[in-house]
Amino acid sequence: MPVIFSTELDLETLQAGDFRVVTKSGQIGTMHCASVLPATDPGELRTVLLIGNFGSVSEDPPVAVEVIGHLYSIDGTLDFRGATVAVTSLEDGPSMIFAEVVEDWTLIGNLGPRRTRGSLCPSDNIVQAIRVTWAGGVTLANGKEPGDVERDLYRITVASEDGSQRILTPAALADLGDGDNNHMLCLDTKDRPISVSFPAGILTDPNDDLNPETSVFLTKPN
After folding, report:
1. Which of 46, 101, 104, 156 gives 20 to 30 Å between its CA and that of 29?
2. CA-based nearest residue to 132, from 176, 101, 167
3. Is there a single domain that holds both residue 44 and residue 112?
């Protein structure tokens, strides 16, 4: 079960005992481990994969995840202890839940464990990039990575210096091939990104559920 946080996490404070999964009947699931793999590129340390026995999907499904330990943000300013989130139903397809402009986009694919590095944005004509985080790992229905067809389905609303807005598609799609829940949208414009959308029925999660129509506003930089 992937759990996505509002910030990156201090991995020194992450352990399986920080989490409690509650089922519909009120039972507490059995937690085996918690890991950020495979989302380990710079900026991705916000997705925690919980592994354990969290109830029966048909008879007693999980309904809530609670943080019961002291789990801190990467800058140490937030303690997530006491945070609670509802569990998305297993049959629901993946949605985008976070997007941000990436300052270190030229490094993505060069840092982190080699086995979990995603592909890079092209170096020619790309001037900025957006990271979009999905609720879980996404691929095409045949299990392959998205390509140019899927890149062209992303819609990004951007604002120019005079305040006018327009909609464009990414010049390239990157951060692929690493099995995580992030895509990098590579842009050839310096116009300020506002939001990202993607149509329904294209990408699937590991349970083979197709994504709904989904959109997300970009998180404003601090």
Report:
1. 46
2. 101
3. no
Residues 54 and 101 reside in one and the same domain = no
Q: What is the CATH number of the domain that holds 28?
A: 2.60.40
pLDDT in the model for residue 115: 53
Q: CA 138, CA 211: separation in Å to the nearest integer?
A: 9
* 119 vs 117, higher pLDDT: 119
Q: How many helices (H) and strands (E) does the chain have?
A: 1, 14
Q: State the residue range of the domain holding 130.
A: 96-217
Say whether pLDDT at 112 is over 70: no
Per-residue pLDDT reduced to its tens digit, 5-45: 999 999 999 999 999 999 999 999 999 999 999 998 888 99
62 upstream amide cis, omega within 30 of 0: no
DSSP state, residue 28: B
Residue-by-residue DSSP string for 143-198: SPPP-HHHHTT-EEEEE-TTS-EEEE--SEEES-SS-SSEEEEEES--SEEEEEEE
